[in-house]
């Protein structure tokens, strides 16, 4: 069989580990052939390919990003997009697709599966917000990067008696903020799932200063104040209808300064969280996803996504991945609150 492989949406550490595992097992154990589609759904749409064999995937395990490139192209928003993909697959003799992506990429894969395209999904996102899998690879790396930043910010915050705000990624789900804030000893953690009271935040800031310690506030980009609106970078939308977030950190710094009289500054981690080498956890998870995805393909189990359930790799219906977002249970934030202030 001949497979097309693509990586779509925001990149994330571990993508190359999946590609390597798919190809290594697919070629060695099943005698499959692979074609790399470039830049997400743009690849099959425009027929953009690259060779993908064992040689092409050597040495990529620790490399961040994706050797295939990525994009947020949505073929369902392009006139005749789906027909073009089907025609290109037929022309190139590709029997099935392995789509590695988050809610947008797997949402497209689900619709293609319903239209009869043979497809297997692999879940990725640093946000960890895909449904029906306990973890996605990339998340552990992003959390570790954020924790390192928080540890460094603690020492400079103390030297200057400042409140420092760390804005992390997470549009609708506060997983990165919650885990990095807990691991980094934040004075408070603000997530999209639980609108926050700015008065309460200022109380926590002041109480941390009283203990002769400088507060670090960890905020997800999608967090919002109880009486306010989501803060966005600008009004433009991408092909999947997402706004560009960022700005909540600066807003918090201004409010904290105004209300407490303490100096406050913001660090926006941004794409640093998505770049660079994956942690060992992410390399192992991504590798296992790749190995199990190609076995699912060998068994002809189309329309499935590989997923982590406990310590086992499961196969779940592709559609279930995007049925709803896996957001943070507010109880988990409550659990962390004992450390706030
Ligand atoms: O979906 C992953 C993610 O990293 C989000 O947390 C973030 O809002 C978004 O991608 C940023 O996307 P882009 O790099 O396209 O601006």
From TrEMBL:
InterPro entries: ATP_PFK, ATP_PFK_prok-type, Phosphofructokinase_CS, Phosphofructokinase_dom, Phosphofructokinase_III, PKF_sf. One of its GO terms (molecular function) is 6-phosphofructokinase activity. Its cofactor is Mg(2+). Pfam families: PFK. GO terms for biological process: canonical glycolysis; fructose 1,6-bisphosphate metabolic process; fructose 6-phosphate metabolic process. PROSITE patterns: PHOSPHOFRUCTOKINASE. This is Unannotated protein. It comes from freshwater metagenome. The lineage of its organism: unclassified sequences, metagenomes, ecological metagenomes.
């Amino acid at each position: 069989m001949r497979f097309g492989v693509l990586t779509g949406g925001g990149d994330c550490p571990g993508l190359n580990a999946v590609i390597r595992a798919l190809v290594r097992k697919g070629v060695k154990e099943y005698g499959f052939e692979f074609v790399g589609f470039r830049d997400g759904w743009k690849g099959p749409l425009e027929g953009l390919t690259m060779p993908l064999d064992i040689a092409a995937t050597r040495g990529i395990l620790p490399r961040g990003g994706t050797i295939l490139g990525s994009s947020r192209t949505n073929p369902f928003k392009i006139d005749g997009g789906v027909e073009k993909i089907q025609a290109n697959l037929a022309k190139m003799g590709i029997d099935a697709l392995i789509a590695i992506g988050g809610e947008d990429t797997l949402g497209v894969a689900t619709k293609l599966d319903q239209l009869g395209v043979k497809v297997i999904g692999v879940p990725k996102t640093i946000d960890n917000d895909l449904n029906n899998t306990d973890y996605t690879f990339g998340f552990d790396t992003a959390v570790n990067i954020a924790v390192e930043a928080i540890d460094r910010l603690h020492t400079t915050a103390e030297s200057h008696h400042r409140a420092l705000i760390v804005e992390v990624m997470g549009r609708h789900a506060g997983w990165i903020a919650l885990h990095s804030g807990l691991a980094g000893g934040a004075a408070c953690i603000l997530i999209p799932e639980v609108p926050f009271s700015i008065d309460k935040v200022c109380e926590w800031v002041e109480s941390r200063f009283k203990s002769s310690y400088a507060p670090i506030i960890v905020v997800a980009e999608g967090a919002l104040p109880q009486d306010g609106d989501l803060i966005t970078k600008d009004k433009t939308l991408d092909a999947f209808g997402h706004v560009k977030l960022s700005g909540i950190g600066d807003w918090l710094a201004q409010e904290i300064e105004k209300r407490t009289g303490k100096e406050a500054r913001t660090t926006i981690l941004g794409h640093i969280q998505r770049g660079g080498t994956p942690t060992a956890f992410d390399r192992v998870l991504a590798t296992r996803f790749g190995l199990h995805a190609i076995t699912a393909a060998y068994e002809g189990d189309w329309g499935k996504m590989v997923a982590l359930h406990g310590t086992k790799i499961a196969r779940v219906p592709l559609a279930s991945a995007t049925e709803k977002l896996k957001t943070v249970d507010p109880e988990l934030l409550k659990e962390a609150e004992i450390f706030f202030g």
